[in-house]
Amino acid sequence: MATPLGARRTARPATTHPLPATGARRQVLAGARVVLPTGTVADGRVTIEGTKIAPEAPHGAPQGALVDVSGHWLVPGFVDLHNHGGGGASFSGSAEDVLKALHTHRLHGSTTVVASTVTDDMDVLVRQAGLLSELAEQGDLAGIHFEGPFISPCRKGAHSEALLRDPDPAEVRKLIDAARGRARMLTLATELPGGLDSVRLLAEQGVIAAVGHTDATYEQTVQAIEAGATVATHLFNAMPPLGHRAPGPIAALLEDERVTVELINDGTHLHPAALELAFRHAGPSRVAFITDAMDAAGIGDGRYLLGPLEVEVSEGVARLVEGGSIAGSTLTLDRAFRRAVTVDRIPVEDVVAALSANPARLLGVDDSVGSLEPGKDADLVLLDEDFELKGVMRKGVWVLDPQLA
Question: What is the pTM of this model?
Fold first, then answer.
């Protein structure tokens, strides 16, 4: 999404070969508070056999390598629906850049990541879709999210206005085809000419239609939902505010049980009261925490390029140099988790749903990820009592070795 200016910082090198697993092929993580779909189990255990979570061994059977994680939390690996990059690299860059950004977010607990593009020329987006689809086919990415160019110039945020266009279904189909079955979501302003037809096309093709960067009215948003839109792209941001006479898209998206609402919980994009409103009204089963991260995630402050636009990151907040619009975030999902529990006081089980189960279900991958259940991938995050990240496992391999001292 963005390219760092200069060489004032270095990132940990990306790798497609995470750190080796410790111990035997069978591992037993014991003593933690384990968050399961049915609730939290104190002094629980998770058994891992190869790349999968296994049923607990019968009494007296060999248990495998025991790892004592007492005093910690074990939660499912995070699933990020909306992420543009990190570690100084972008999902709109080369394959090496994509893997570097992906590795950065894995180190912060995101074991399943959808790569988001940013508004650009159609030919550029088509080429990038081809590159990202190859990485998705290899199992590195969970798919592709196209954010733009079919968005409103009135709510463009950090997208280049010169590259925006109405959502022509033929061009939408061109992007879907370029993704070779790996397109997972497309954000569009459904009130624009061609918007509703594009939503119907996306629904027919099994691609999530997301309402975002929109200037739609309440009534227009209801029409989009009826046509098949099922996600609110970073609810509240880049759309008209909630009004008592003109409720706009926010009310329509919150009230419909078919819609999952994305929230960026970094303390900048949303006031805590707005976050609470969304959770209370949509309910914990319809919220998905996202990062909307750009290159600076996992690195720090400095000057970056977001497509053709210059971005200044100061104290962790990314804004366009010209105009000052927020330009994505520097968030990682472990920070979103900790803030949700310690600042927003959301129950841990509801936070886990918003970070793992809900987005996994939305993507249609909840048969393999999103919860700690036998038969699913051994994707998990280890947190201490203060909800600080202490370990990350993906498919039975420690991406970040447990820090238990």
Answer: 0.91
